[in-house]
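Repro:
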Amino acid sequence: MEWVVNAENVIAVGTFAVASSIAFGQWWYERMVPRRRRIGYRVQLDTAIGDDDGTGGGNTRLGLFDEADGMDEASVVLLRIENDGALSVSTGDYTSGGLHGMTATFDGREVHGVAVTVGPGSGALMSHFTPAHGLEYDGSSLRIPRVPLNKGEYFKLLVLLSGGTVGSKVTVSGGLQDGDVHPNESLTPDEKPPVFSRPARLTSMAFLVGIALLAGLIVTGGEPPPMGCATGSLEVTGSTAFAPVAEELAEAYMEQCPGSKITVTAHGSTTGLRELAERGAAAKDGAPGLVALSDGPAPRGQETGDAGTEGGEGGGLAGTRLAVSVFTLLAHADVPVRNLTLADLRRIYAGEVTDWREVGAGRSLPIVLAGRGAASGTRDVLQRRLLDGAFEPPASSRDCSRKDNPKAPVIRCELDTTDQVIATVARVPGALGYSELRTTSTLEGVRRLSLDGRRPSLDGAGHDAYPYREIEYAYTYGRPPADSLTAGFLAFATRGPGQDVVRTHGHLPCGTPEGLRICGAAD
């Protein structure tokens, strides 16, 4: 019994015992406690409709309430009667000696009329509410017929009363074979939760199974493998679009794993991959502590000789799919266009369309292209996914305001970062640019454009055909050792809390079911 000295073991086994008792108790109650017929009732409305409500207060009346005789002390009560037992109730299950099955009594008040309503799908019940079946009233009593009720079925009685006090006692009496008539309550006017619903039972059983596995794991000496926390230094470079995610992942990892130091310096996907390939080829004592983030797979045939593949051994780039990044076209807020077709977009970047009027705007406004340099993965995604492999036109302006090359068909400038592109689009009238979809921030001065009627959306990334999206890769030079800081950081980024960080920044983690449909289908 050495396990007894371990507090975790005692707590786990104790929790298992409690959960077992709860699950068994529910099972025993539902199977061993006799199933009974029960009719429940409750007052859903009790209000004065006359000037004198019997409480010394009063109310406001208007219209027919003031004109009808005898309404000074009038009140109405809405009474709900339902089968809340485990069995159906038939007309023969009532034990009353008369035609009626139950009697409603309104202390101190006199009944003057009653209206009956039934629940959806229960219209056949209305045939039972006739004097011939025992529906009648006398003084403070209302006699209710022997109404058959299936489990969960109900009807309501709206009773007009006079005299007495609003809120005075209302009771329903009657007898049932192997059952009773009783007052009940509900969280909402028309819904009463069951004692043990099916979801509650399933939840309890799932909880029991999970606790059983945990208790067995701890008692037998096993435990889930912890995330490997390695010390040392690691550099993360590459994609600027994914840089904010990488920075937060690095901070979270270093907080969880003291002794690790991770720095993020993003200069573009192509630049990062080239740096990784060069440093990896020059390393003499193993792969460098460097991860290169790339918007999309590394180009095949890059200097490494193994670019763009996963499972690379030794030399060559080895990629890990991290997330699906959704990108969006951005236009200056004053551009009167909300949607572009792929055909029109390609004509714009080919220099064939230079004014927004040519693609549906109601006025003339020159198009200004704000783009990224050749090393940008975001630009590469635009060219591969939207421009059918065609390149953006050459830069023709240094400030995105004036055309420095008069022969160029369109003004186009190149920026170093995505943030610079966004700021430029917001500043320059008629500007068109692109960036990753930032669902957690508000972009002022710009608007996102739809493509062929499809809006950029993270929620729909795994389902619709929105074309401007790409998989974000993390590349290493060869597969890192399992106990290395590089391997630990990649594991953190692809599961557990790392996935939450990725999603918070507007990307779809590849480890989720939605992301796996896209990431798993990639070449």
